[in-house]
Amino acid sequence: MLRSRNMKVKHSEKVIKKANNLLMMNYEAEKIFTDAHDIVNDNNLKSFFRELAFERNEFIRALRKETIKLGEKPQNFEGLNKLSRAYYIFWKNLRPLLKEDYTPELLDQICNIKEWSIDNYNDLLQELNLSLSLCKLLAEQRDLLHSKMNSIKIDSIKVKETLEV
């Protein structure tokens, strides 16, 4: 009985750690999109990045709420000084493209960020015994990311085709 309880505690700790990692990843993605919004000149791109940042902010709020429902205190990443290696790689690749307005490479980098996010969601969704509400939330957010990524890929193809003409 004690062994079973210890395994549940370790499992719960693992889920909470992964949930906090997902919160961090969403915070970093929100920061990338907010910073991109501040750099681009094109109003359509500003709106696009504002929407992406807002989406991630909503994801963060829902994940924090779900973590609290699990009886845990979610980490707070506001004003965070240490960002992940992945964040710096994405930002380094994205930043030079922000002045070029709608290049296929810019859209490809957005897709790379979304793929990184989807991988993180899938990693947590593979955990056993997730609460139903957490599982539903993660699946909804992941599926929304996937749907929007596919739309961006279609837009990227259209941009490439217009550049070839």
TrEMBL record:
Alphabetical list of Pfam families matching this protein: DUF2383
DUF2383 domain: which residues?
A: 15-126
Would you tell me the protein name for this molecule? DUF2383 domain-containing protein
Q: Which superkingdom heads the taxonomic lineage of this protein's source?
A: Bacteria
InterPro entries, per the entry: DUF2383 (IPR019052), Ferritin-like (IPR012347), Ferritin-like_SF (IPR009078)
